[in-house]
Design a protein that fits this description.
two-stranded parallel ribbon, 6 helices, 13% strand, Rossmann fold, alpha/beta
Length: 131
């Protein structure tokens, strides 16, 4: 199984958060293959760097270039609609962006690595929530 790094983890990597870097290093021993990102994670990170200087934007883009970006498909939409319907009907508030990420993780049978506790609510995906 491959890992998908959430935006929160990409930001922690960029900030050189030693705690997260150590946990990622430990995870890499159990999960082969390069970590992935979803198109929403790519988008969220891009939005976060818009106000930076050109030099800092270039550094951030260089970091992003280390990750393969998963594309959305018709299956992504089908999984997303099922997730959205289920959690809306249960009165559980989860952002559309987080549900899109979850749909892509589920579709590709991957493991999401995140610092965002919201993902603990989503039962349908494999995830590792870091402190």
């Amino acid at each position: 199984m491959l890992l998908v790094f959430d935006t929160s983890v990409i930001i922690a990597i960029e900030k050189e958060d030693n705690n997260i870097l150590k946990k990622i290093s430990e995870l890499s021993k159990s999960y082969s293959g390069p970590p992935q990102i979803t198109f929403i994670i790519y988008y969220e990170f891009l939005m976060g760097i818009k106000k930076r200087s050109p030099i800092n934007q270039a550094k951030a883009m260089d970091l992003l270039s280390n990750f393969n970006c998963l594309s959305a498909t018709k299956e992504t939409a089908e999984i997303l609609s099922a997730l959205k319907y289920k959690y809306d009907a249960a009165g559980i508030s989860i952002s559309l962006a987080d549900l899109i990420i979850a749909a892509q993780v589920k579709e590709n049978n991957m493991v999401l690595v995140t610092k965002d506790k919201t993902f603990e609510k989503i039962e349908e995906i494999n995830k590792i929530v870091l402190d």
